[in-house]
Design brief:
658 residues; alpha+beta; Immunoglobulin-like; ten-stranded antiparallel sheet; 39 strands
Length: 658
C-alpha cells in the first residue's frame, strides 16, 4: 500500500513539473508574440559586448566592442566610440517596432526569394554578440510604399517591415561615431604629467624632458630640476590637456607619419593616472588646416592620426618656467617673532612684543649704537608680512648658481638682507642684490635668493626695495598719541606764530558745557573744522614721520629750513586720585606746502612729521586769508559800475631830424 502511494506521488510530481514547463513555454510564446522584433532582440542588446556592421552599404566593416560601460571602435580603426551615438543606435534597436511581418516560407511559396527584398546580399548586416553567442539582422531594400525597409529577423524565418530610420542610425558617418576626446583619464585621477619637447637649438636635436608629480596635494617638478610648481597653473594645464579634442581624423590614404612629423615628434605629452598612462605624440603643423594653427597628432600604440588645436600645446614649450611656482617666500605669519632688515652695517629690527598679538616695536642700530625703540604700526607690519609672503619672481635667473654667479649678480654687496625669525623652526633669510654697474638704473633687474633653496630669482627692483625701506620712521605707529576716554579738553587755541595773533581761543566755561554745544553757537562755517582739530587732539594721527627729533624750524635740508607758522594748543584735564591733573598739548605747523603736504612737529613727542589730509584741510579753512566771494556766503553780488567810454587816441607827433 505504501509503495503504491509513493508511485502515485512520483507520477503526480512528473505531471506537475511537465505542466509548469508547458505553461512557461506557452507564456514565453504569448509574451514574444506581441513584442515582435523588439522582443526578440531586446534582451541581447542589453547584454551585448560586441556589435558588427557589414554589407554593401559600408566601405569597410565596423566593429564596436564594449569593456565595462565603454564602447570602442576596433575596425576600421581603433578609437573610443561616441557614447551618445552608440546609445542612440542601441535605443533605436531596443525599441524597434515593425509595421508588418511575414514568413520567409510564404514568399517562397509565391515564387519569391530573399533577393527580391534585398536580403540575399543585404545593404547592412548587423551582428549583436555576447561572448560566443550571436544574433544577426539583415537590412534589405526600401519598400515600394512608405518610408520603410525590409529586415530579416534573427531566426532567418521572418521578414519585418520597419521604418528606414534604422538605416540612418546604423549608417552614421564614421566621424560622428568616433568620440572627439583624446585622453580618457579623468582630471581627478591624474598623478603626474610628463613632457618631452624637441629642442631645435641643439645640434643633435635632443629633447628637453619635463616631469611634474603630485605628492600630498602638492605639485613639484622632478625634471629638469627639483622645484615647486604652481598648483593652480598645473591644474589649469591638465584641465586644458584632458579637454583637448580631435579637430579632424586623417583617413588612411592621407596618412604619412614621416611627412606629418610623427616619427620625429615635436613633443610627447604623457598623462599618468592610477596604474595607467596615455601618451600623445605631437608632430608637424598641419599645412592645409583651416582657421587657427593645428598639429598632426596620434596616441602612442594607436595608428589613428588626427589634428588638434596647436595653441594649448605651444604653451607647453616653456612649461619648465611657465608652470613653476613664483612665490618663493613662504612662512606662517602666526609664528613670526622678529624681522631684521639690514644693508651695509645699518640694521632695523622689528620685534614682536608679548603684550598682544599685533603689538610690535621697531629699533635701529648703526654699529654699536642703538636708537630708542618705538612702537611699530601694526597695519604696516601686517602689510610687510603680506608683501613678503606674496613676493613673486618675474623670472628665474640661475637655478644652480656658482660663486662666480653670486658675485656677478651683486650678492657680495647686497641691497637688503631680510631675516625672519620664528618661535618654531629655523630663520628664513631673503637676500636682494643687483650688479654694481647698474645701481643707478631703477628699472634694471633685482635678484633674490633665500637660504631655503639654491635658486636665484629675478624680481622687480623699484617696488621690491620700496616694500622694505631702511627707514625706522616708516615702521613707527601712525598714532602719535591717543588720550584716554576719560580725558576732557578744557580749552583749544590756534595761534599765528608770525603775527602773534590768535586765530581762535575757546574755553569751556563749566563742566556741564560740551564742545558740541559750543560749536553750534559759532558763527560761519568754523564749527566742523574746529571739530576736526578737537578729534586730532584726542587721537593725533601722522601721515608719515620725517625726523625722530624736534627742531625750532623744519630742516628741509642742510641749507634750508621752514619756520613754524601755526601752533595748536590744548588744555587737557585728566582725572586721577583726589584731584584732577591738567596737562598741555602743543603742535606746531608750517605753512601748507602743497594740496596734500603740510609738516608739523611736537616737542613733547620729539618728532617732525606730515599730517593727514583732513587736518590739512581744516587748518587751511581756519587760517586762509583769501577773501571769500559773496556768492559763497549767500550774499548778493554787487553790480559793477559801467566803465567810462574810451576817448579817441591823439595822433602821435613825430620829429624829423635833419
Amino acid at each position: 500500500m505504501r509503495f503504491k502511494f509513493t508511485v502515485f506521488l512520483l507520477a503526480l510530481n512528473v505531471i506537475t513539473f511537465g505542466l509548469i514547463a508547458y505553461l512557461g513555454k506557452q507564456a514565453n510564446q504569448v509574451q514574444a508574440e506581441p513584442g515582435g522584433l523588439s522582443g526578440q532582440i531586446g534582451r541581447e542588446l542589453l547584454d551585448a559586448d560586441r556589435i558588427e556592421l557589414h554589407g554593401r552599404g559600408l566601405e569597410t566593416p565596423r566593429i564596436l566592442e564594449r569593456k565595462g560601460s565603454t564602447w570602442t571602435i576596433t575596425q576600421p580603426m581603433e578609437w573610443s566610440a561616441n557614447y551618445f551615438a552608440i546609445n542612440r543606435i542601441l535605443n533605436q534597436l531596443q525599441f524597434l517596432e515593425e509595421d508588418a511581418s511575414f514568413a520567409v516560407d510564404e514568399i517562397e511559396k509565391s515564387g519569391q526569394s530573399l533577393a527580391d527584398y534585398g536580403l540575399e546580399d543585404p545593404l547592412l548586416r548587423l551582428v549583436i554578440a555576447e561572448g560566443q553567442q550571436t544574433i544577426s539582422l539583415s537590412i534589405g531594400t526600401l519598400t515600394e510604399i512608405g518610408n520603410n525597409v525590409y529586415l530579416l529577423g534573427p531566426d532567418g524565418r521572418e521578414i519585418f517591415v520597419v521604418n528606414r530610420q534604422i538605416i540612418d542610425g546604423l549608417l552614421v558617418d564614421l566621424n560622428d561615431l568616433r568620440t572627439r576626446e583624446i585622453f580618457d583619464i579623468p582630471v581627478f585621477e591624474v598623478e603626474a604629467l610628463g613632457l618631452q619637447i624637441r629642442s631645435d637649438s641643439t645640434a643633435d636635436g635632443s629633447s628637453l624632458k619635463v616631469r611634474l608629480a603630485r605628492n600630498n596635494g602638492e605639485w613639484r617638478f622632478e625634471a629638469p630640476l627639483a622645484a615647486k610648481a604652481d598648483p593652480a597653473l598645473v591644474d589649469n594645464t591638465i584641465n586644458t590637456l584632458t579637454a583637448a579634442k580631435v579637430v579632424r581624423f586623417i583617413e588612411g590614404n592621407e596618412t604619412d607619419p614621416i611627412l606629418q612629423g610623427l616619427e620625429t615628434p615635436l613633443m610627447q605629452v604623457t598623462i599618468h593616472g592610477n596604474k595607467r598612462r596615455q601618451t600623445l605624440i605631437i608632430g608637424n603643423l598641419a599645412s592645409n588646416a583651416k582657421g587657427p594653427p593645428q598639429y598632426y597628432a596620434k596616441l602612442e600604440d594607436n595608428p589613428a592620426i588626427f589634428t588638434l588645436m596647436a595653441r594649448p600645446f605651444d604653451a607647453l614649450r616653456e612649461a619648465q618656467e611657465a608652470l613653476r611656482e613664483r612665490n618663493f617666500v613662504n612662512f606662517d605669519h602666526r609664528l613670526l617673532s622678529a624681522i631684521n632688515i639690514s644693508e651695509n652695517g645699518r640694521k632695523i629690527r622689528l620685534q614682536k612684543l608679548e603684550t598682544g598679538e599685533h603689538d610690535w616695536q621697531v629699533l635701529e642700530s648703526k654699529g654699536e649704537d642703538e636708537i630708542q625703540p618705538h612702537r611699530a604700526d601694526s597695519a604696516i607690519i601686517e602689510q610687510l608680512m603680506d608683501d613678503l609672503s606674496s613676493m613673486r619672481a618675474s623670472g628665474f635667473a640661475v637655478d644652480a648658481p656658482t660663486p662666480t654667479d653670486t658675485e656677478r649678480l651683486g650678492f657680495n654687496q647686497p641691497r637688503r638682507v631680510i631675516t625672519l625669525s620664528f618661535t618654531q623652526g629655523e630663520p628664513l633669510t631673503l637676500t636682494l642684490a643687483h650688479p654694481e654697474d647698474d645701481s643707478e638704473d631703477a628699472n634694471a633687474a633685482l635678484y633674490a635668493k633665500t637660504n631655503q633653496a639654491d635658486f636665484i630669482f629675478q624680481v622687480e627692483r623699484r617696488p621690491t626695495l620700496q616694500m622694505v625701506p631702511l627707514n625706522t620712521s616708516y615702521y613707527r605707529n601712525r598714532t602719535l598719541e591717543k588720550l584716554p576716554s576719560s580725558a576732557r579738553i578744557r580749552s583749544l587755541q590756534l595761534t599765528n606764530l608770525e603775527s602773534g595773533e590768535s586765530v581762535f581761543d575757546y574755553t569751556l566755561p563749566q563742566d556741564s558745557i560740551r564742545w558740541d554745544n559750543l560749536l553750534e553757537q559759532l558763527e560761519g562755517q568754523r564749527g566742523p573744522h574746529i571739530r576736526v582739530l578737537i578729534d586730532a587732539i584726542r587721537e593725533f594721527k601722522v601721515k608719515s614721520y620725517l625726523l625722530d627729533s624736534y627742531a625750532e624750524a623744519y630742516p628741509v635740508d642742510s641749507e634750508k629750513s621752514l619756520p613754524w607758522k601755526f601752533k595748536l594748543s590744548a588744555t587737557i584735564q585728566l582725572p586721577g586720585g583726589d584731584t584732577d591733573r591738567t596737562e598741555m598739548r602743543e603742535y606746531v605747523f608750517t605753512k601748507r606746502l602743497s594740496g596734500t603736504i603740510q609738516v608739523a612737529g611736537s616737542k613733547q613727542h620729539n618728532a617732525i612729521f606730515e599730517i593727514p589730509q583732513p587736518l590739512i584741510d581744516a587748518l587751511y579753512e581756519l587760517t586762509d586769508d583769501m577773501e571769500t566771494p559773496p556768492e559763497v556766503d549767500g550774499n548778493a553780488v554787487t553790480t559793477p559800475a559801467t566803465p567810462a567810454p574810451l576817448t579817441a587816441p591823439q595822433p602821435i607827433e613825430t620829429e624829423l631830424s635833419e
